[in-house]
Structure formats: C-alpha cells, structure tokens
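WARN no homologs supplied; continuing
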Amino acid sequence: MILDIFFPNRCLHCNRIIEADFLVCNLCYEQIHFTHFDYFENNFIKEKCKLLFPVENTFALMQFQKENLSRKIIHELKYKSREKIGKTLAEWTIENLNFKNDKPDLLVSVPLHPKKLKERGYNQLHLFTETLSKFYEIPFSHDLIKRNYYSKAQALKDKKHRLETENTFSITKNITGKHVLLIDDVFTTGNTLSTITWEILKSGNNKVSVLVMAVDE
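OK structure emitted
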C-alpha cells in the first residue's frame, strides 16, 4: 500500500516501524505490565469491589501506573481518536481470559453521556466489547445503562468529586436472571461500577462481574 510506504505504522512507545495491525513492537510489548489475574480467584479488584457491591468475578488486563506504557495506551485510545486500539486490547484480553464453563449472559459497557460521545466521536469501550462478544459468542448491550449527567473526565476530577456518582446512571430496561459482565476502561475508586451494578441488581435477580482494561492500584 502506498500509504504504508509514506506513513508507516510505528510503535506507540519507541516509534519503530512495525506491522500495520500492531500497536507496539515486540520489545515494547514486553514492557507492558499485564496483571495475569485469574477471573475466578481473588484479586485486587475483587477485594475493592466487595467493599462496594456484590461481585461474582473480576478481571483486569493491565496495571495502570504513572508513566507506564499501559497508561499511554489507554490515553491514546480515549483522547487521540485511536478507536482501533480497543480491538487490540480485546485481542490481548482474549489471550488471557478463560470463562471456562461459566460465561456471562450479557456484556455491558459503561456509557458516555451523549454530549461526550458527540465530542469524542466514539465510545472507547464499544469496539473492545464487540470484539469480545464476537469471540466468546456472548451478546452485548451498549444502551442498557444510561448516563444521566454530563461531567468532565474522571481523570480531571479530584477525589471528592469522583465519589459523587449517585444517580449518575440509570437502567433503560429491566432485566432479570442474567449474569452481566460490566466493562470499563480503568478501575480507580470503583464508584462508577458500583453505581451501575446496583442499578442492575435492583432490576431483577441478576449477578454482576467486572472486566476492565487496566487497574490503578
């Protein structure tokens, strides 16, 4: 391709020329701090979630730490119009996540407010969720949960305002008897996931598990 000659794909971290569908080179891939969490066992996220809401299983792909490569990857996905990174992260997740004989019934992504969605042009979780849905053969919903208020990015909020999530989300239709896998980009305080989970639990006899791209420990 002519574009590949004049505008070759480069590693997000070191700027080496790499294959068109790659995100980072092999050397930089080795620098990514993957969590290697077991979806069914206790881990940092499960311990934090249990303090806020009932949770079945939890998984995070990467550790989200200051100045590390995972932070740069998530930043590029969310703020640099690189939506396709979501597909790469989903493929990495697939390599590390085995539902065994206990697959969730539904994948649900955390929504953006319509104004934020228009500003960004895409929800950074949609392609990620859809890729997982196709591989695991689990249906997904991007509109089961509605964000009621427009607010600035969590990363720009102080800790006090991050805790003020009450009534931020509502459920658009009642579901019952479902095991929902709730998907977000970064786990920080867990309050966003807690607010959404309680809406899902109030809807019916449901269970909730959590999957995030990265966890900020």
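The longest helix spans residues 191-203.
OK
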